[in-house]
């Protein structure tokens, strides 16, 4: 086993993380359920890669994510930062000994748990108090009604990422930045995040949380970090990643920098637009220096993108869009935890296991030294039937804007993962079916990458109860695409759709050039050029002229690395 530690920094990053861990929890439950499909019982995934075993003071065994979450104070909603498995630590006595006057304590009412969290609490109490009680047989109908109520409740009212989380966390996992409250509006730039990390001993405490998980690993394969990079949390993340680079220089860091589409919905004036564009460039430049591979995710309008052709997304709901990005993250990272067969043995359940280091070397190593990748997704993945093979690659759509289409890149490198695929008649596709279909799709394609790695699994993406109602009316119970839409059902969720086939592709390609060039152009125009209108703004964020120019050099190097024929060079020899 080679462990992975997960880091989630910022509100939107934790929304994505909440869905991601719900998928893992669902897989764990389905593997143990006698009623579940055989494909879930034999998923051949090593969950210990992401999870750790522990024990409470009462001697109860625990199995929790190896994860550190960082967010505002008050961002956990009705959930305790200590989690629910371990004893609560009494609050520290805050009396000031030199004060002789009267002390008044003002305590707010605890937030009321929603229907979903109430149901989790009831299930936990029943499993403890009625572990051997099998008398109640007539629970099916009430449970079904309750599930519908839960799904409707979540659709109408999700405020915190914990509102839909079904996972138990370790007390070291959930960290709140004291002094920064969840409803703060001005935590909107890199400089504030940097100050927050360095102040109030936050940096040391966060580092200690990570150290707790890393030091108990036997052979850590890497750290996957999800970052909300649209405001102050980009600064928090950069400072955190700097300390990681200093303390664990040989541990690969894979970074998902995520962007909430709801941020693009508010109309902005010119000044706000300049601030947004500058911050986007600064954040991307700084974060990219602190990881081995960066995976941007975040479309200005996910609902209007081709990635959502079978989905019904409401961009204003982070609960919706984060589910798509989490699904892609889960699918892409499956090879990191596939169980390895012997050197000559072939598994009928998985193929193409790959660790994080191998992925980094493949995409950003000697073959192509580009660390900025494009994550494409097909959700759900189409059938692998003969007539669909030619369009299979066309169903993979990017999750970031400004990507060039139909680019002929003879040096492109990619890794593709397909899991839970179906073939003609909606039959489960075998591993060999997947390999043959992908090879056929590339044979019929105008261009193909210089190198492509394929990973496959027979296990589809399970849809947990708290998953949002984002499937369109042509998506069937097992993610099959129906020829005739289901009447009277514009949006479908976990009650109607139980699992879906998925396909993801991570590629290093010149198609990402427009995405990078736009960031470089914005930084030069608004921050570097003489008389740049955004220079005072950058200074207020704590950046000097030399630092801004260095960030421009970082982005410029990314662009020139990918340009087939650089338009300019600093050396004449």
Automatic annotation (TrEMBL):
Give the main location: cytoplasm
Q: Where in the cell is it found?
A: Cytoplasm, Cytoskeleton; Mitochondrion
Q: Keyword Mitochondrion on this protein?
A: yes
Q: Where is the Misato Segment II tubulin-like domain?
A: 2-121
Instruction: Establish whether keyword Mitochondrion is in the entry.
Output: yes
Alphabetical list of InterPro entries matching this protein: Beta-tubulin_BS, DML1/Misato, DML1/Misato_tubulin, Misato_II_tubulin-like, Tubulin/FtsZ_GTPase_sf
Q: Which PROSITE patterns match?
A: TUBULIN_B_AUTOREG (PS00228)
Name assigned to this protein: Protein misato homolog 1 isoform X2
Q: Which source organism? A: Solanum pennellii
Ranked from the top, the taxonomy reads: Eukaryota, Viridiplantae, Streptophyta, Embryophyta, Tracheophyta
